[in-house]
Amino acid sequence: MAEWDIRKLLILRTLRERGTVTATAEALRMTPSAVSQQLTNMARQLGVPLLEARGRGVRLTDAARLVLRHAEAVFEQLERADAELGAYLHGEAGEVRVGAFSTAVPALVVPAVRVLRAGHPGVRVQVREAEAGEAYELLGSGEVDLALSLAAQAPSAADARFTRVTLLADPLDVALPRDHPLAAAERLRLADLAAEPWIFGGSGPWSDITRGVCEAAGFTPHQGHSATGWTAILAMVEAGMGVALVPRMAAVPRDGVAMREPATERPVRHVVAAVRRGAQDAPAVQRVLDALRTVAAGLGS
To answer: Higher pLDDT residue, 60 or 81?
Structure first.
């Protein structure tokens, strides 16, 4: 029977995800030569080639992909073993490291911490603010235990590494200057604002969401100003510089801004949580997920 080494399997899986030996070494805090040596030793132990040259880099062989297909079940089972050991050793106690995008921290994570303090004070949460791409890198490398992101930024549900949990359909409201002629209209359609300057980021998920929602309403938004922070966006709206779509979870009341729900489109953005597959059985992780669901249900209602 071939010799299997979990550490070497992890190196091989990381190489598949990161694409290069250098990026793999950085992710695992190793040197590139150590990565290459470990994979060479693994190939020798298994008796099959795992890498082949491709230009100046390398690519995984079919044998390596076969190995990883079976290794995913091993990693999942090890996560379950860790979860059960954690339950045995700590019960209701433990620390859960959460990576979350900026607006989710005050709206979801902090209220969830308050819920946990009231019902499960032995479960501690360590928060790390991180946008989706970074959050999932941290989750995959084991630096956080749970990641919060928008569904549009999350890995595919088919990704064997993670289990996704839908938390919230966050409504998107239109922010208008308080003195805008349509701010007090009985019904407001997005199409009524087709000629207005819109405020949103130049690229990224929020730009895609704004453009997609407006195009679904029948027009292409004219980008009057580019900003990604909600404080800056709402300040410009208050100053009469344009209008914007704002997630209800991120909205901060301002005297000079009217928040209106579109009468017909009612767009939403979906917020999801993700854990490494198998780790959702850890009691402390379950407690955090339950607290997040409780908070999300309150926001949704």
So the answer is: 60
Cβ neighbours around 7 below 10 Å, total: 10
CA nearest 106: which of 94, 114, 97?
Answer: 114
Place of tokens 């100003």: 225
Count of helix runs (H) and strand runs (E) in the chain = 10, 11
Give the residue ranges of DSSP H helices in 47-101: 62-90
pLDDT of residue 283: 84
Q: Bridge partners of 259?
A: 175
Contact 275, 97 (CB under 8 A): no
What pLDDT is attached to residue 301? 64
Q: Rounded to whole angstroms, what are the CA distances from 38 to 11, 35, 45, 290?
A: 8, 5, 10, 40
CA-based nearest residue to 101, from 259, 244, 247 = 247
Q: What is the pTM of this model?
A: 0.69
- Specify the pLDDT at position 251: 81
Return the beta strands (E) in 51-195 as ranges.
51-54, 57-60, 94-100, 123-129, 146-150, 162-177
* pLDDT band at residue 292 using 50, 70 and 90 as cut-offs: very high
